[in-house]
Amino acid sequence: MGAPHETPVPGGVRLASAQGRWVLATSVLGSGMALLDSTVVNVALPKIGADLDADLAVLQWTVTAYLLTLSSLILLGGALGDRYGRRRIFVIGVVWFAAASLACGLAPNAGVLIAARALQGVGGALLTPGSLALIQAVFHPDDRARAVGAWSGLGGVGAAIGPFVGGWLVDGAGWRWVFFLNVPLAAVCVPVALRHVPETRRHDAEARGGFDVPGAVLGALALAGVTYALIAASGGGLSPGVVVPAVLGVLLGVAFVRVEGRRADPMLPPAIFRIRLFSAINGVTVCVYAAFSGFFFLAVLQLQVVAGYSALRAGTALLPTTVLMLLLSARSGELGQRLGPRVPLTVGPLLCAAGMLLMLRVGPAAAYLTDVLPALVVLGAGMVTLVAPLTATVLASVDVDRAGLASGINNAAARAAGLVAVAALPLLAGMGPEAYRSADEFAAAFRRAMPLLAGVLLAGALLAWLTIRTGTLRAAEPEPARRCHPECTYHCGVGAPPLDPGEQDPRAER
Hints:
Layout: H1 18-52, H2 56-84, H3 86-106, H4 110-138, H5 141-171, H6 176-180, H7 182-196, H8 213-236, H9 240-262, H10 276-306, H11 311-317, H12 319-339, H13 342-358, H14 368-396, H15 403-428, H16 439-467, H17 472-475
């Protein structure tokens, strides 16, 4: 295949060149694997449960095991790329993700599937930070914005077709092919990356610091304890098997905070939360993405179990939210710059709450045009309104040199919030272990869950209104040469805020 190309960094590769197109292609393929996974697995959950004779807890773990390792390790994955080479860690992540996906597809039982999903999250934590970081570090500064826009737009197209492809595979070849799909994508991505993507890494003092492995482990174990307790409580009540993991999770969470406060190079620096705006916007993020994750987990089940939709029809039914994000995110970002973030971050969650309440109309034999579509259009309008300004406010809340860290923390917070929401919502809504097997039981629990999610969104809207000033983005605007340009200006995903590495410093790269 020949030796890999080495290009001076930064500013070596032009988007119009053959190498530039290859770099863009491999970044899109890599991020597309993780993006497809986040959009298609939910569609397959009812068939997974039926095939493996699994209860609702298994379906929850199928989602949360992946989110657990991904949210816990994603900051560490970015740091590994900075130190050991972004291409190297990206390729390792792609191979790891594909191998874990193969194990998911071959899983003979629920235990193996859940373990493989956790391993898949580790791969996602390695490849997700590297995808955009490759573009930021490799492309010429004059082409970087267009490259990021192309990467984001193509990712949006992938997100839009993901539920359709997932539903088609589930109804046709079977749910296992939702995971097998990642293997040929990786088989194309890895050789292209090795041949055409130049290696980049940081060589400044920050990159030479230690890795916060204790923090990552403690954070993962704390989340695992709390998640296990919440899921187990749905079927077992307050038994020792629930109380003990919950207490251990809380204690490990306290230990995590103490370790981060004492380390010289913490994964999650406590000092950054002393910035009032940064803490506030992360609070809004937790509310918003907890509600989103809970909604998409339950909505596909409601459409299939209660409304009688096939997997293909259920996946396609959810497309309006992604299509609206793809078409209107750029305009939303521009509007947020003009109006300031306070109004969009207040109105957006309120619209999302209204959309979720409209989903209460979705019952047996629901008509798509009159029952499902209006709710998803209102929900999508709310997501369009809030996500781009949220991302811009995260980057504006800190110095430009810390934008990558701020974005990483915000992304991890959103995924952790989604993890807890998927674990807790069935418990709060009174769903029993076999609820998804009964249309009447699941419909009743769904009617209890939607107002809960709407309440979380109302809390996010109130927090935004009380803590975020209208002129925040203009007041925090740095000089043009040092300005961060969030990729969410082009397209915002629905699973988590974009993971933006920030502007790369030429003097810190090789």
